[in-house]
Amino acid sequence: MLKLSHTGRPSDEIIAELEAKRAEDVRWADGRTFGMIYDGGPSVHEVAERAALLYLHENALNTKAFPSLGAIQSEVVGWTARLLHADAESAGFLTSGGTESILCAVLAARERGRNERQVTEPEMVVTETAHAAFHKAAHLFGIKLHKTPVQSDWTADLDAMADQINDRTVLVVGSAPQYPQGLIDPIPEIAALAAQVGAHCHVDACMGGFVLPFAEQLGRPVPPWDFRVEGVDSISADIHKLGYAPKGVSVILYRNRGLRRNQTFVFDDWLGGFYASPNLQGSRSGMPMATAWAVMQHLGLEGYCALTRDTLENADQMRAGIRNIEGLQVLGDSHYHLVAMASDSRTEHPPIDVFALGDALMRRGWYHDRQKPPDTLHSTVSNTNAGVIEEYLRDLEACVEETRGERAADRSTEYSTLE
Predict the structure, then answer these.
(1) β-bridge partners, 371
(2) What integer is the mean pLDDT of 129-147?
(3) Whether residues 282 and 388 fall in one domain
(4) Residue at a domain's end among 263, 297, 331
(5) What pLDDT sits at residue 416?
(6) pLDDT band at residue 418, thresholds of 50, 70 and 90?
(7) Collapsed DSSP state (helix, strand, coil) of residue 18
């Protein structure tokens, strides 16, 4: 077992060891990582780093002690609400990321069902493409989860969802877009299903909240998904994804303060005094909040539109290149920034095992997430990948020829931290 050193160490020595530990990490700064890190460019780095230093030690637990963080949260939530077409009645909080935003939405739905409809055995309905965080929330909060299949085009099967909705349903979920294949669920129809029983409707836009509004401004067709849809009660949107802020900051938004109230915990029977927390954390760093504020102010609408334009063009180029390779296919008709690449059995050539293909690409420095079923290499394209797509497609073609007929021994699809 490792032991902490008895005496302290010089700072230069410590930093050198940390730098050495990074040797095997993915090379996201080279544009060869499709996901996890989202790079807005040098000027975004600079403003975020300067804001981070200012708020490195501040604690967002108590905004009476740090009123600047209260103002920062209010302004970031307000800007996001405007992007998602919420009105003046909307309200929300900042969280540490998409998982916490989803957990908060599920908790609020459970409490709303208890408070408004006296539901004591709550249930929720999601599709099989909904984020795993909904399953985590169901486990943590004692909610029975119904997972419904998707259609052949990877969008929600509304009939299957309707079959699972009943008078105990407190939450119905749609995604904009869902992560595995990048498709936007039929949100108006999902919201209408929820409304039939008075259930809460949440839209998970952690991946799309800072892409779809700008894609729409750029003239790309976007189906209805945000607060313009009647019956949408809450939306989660991650600023630390395509909002280009550092990890970890996300927004959970509600149509009004009454809905948001179901999320908060208030306790006044403690010798330590009145305690209240807006989300799942108590003490939390003000640093991510400040960096999100700084990045959003730095980019503005024009900056986000420019980054989104580059992102969508990169993704379009990637999809077209994949479709031109015999034996590969893109799953679903995504028009945005998520690309799911799978083997296409409709070919006379030897089959392609995409996990063997992914291993070959990794040897050339390209990193994808793995998914199944079906076996898939997943890419979240962003401005990080600007300027490298042509090189990627050349390497992809070469790796396809190298690996035709091979099968990877490692079939794992881990997206986790277990050690």
Answers:
(1) 376
(2) 97
(3) no
(4) 297
(5) 52
(6) very low
(7) helix
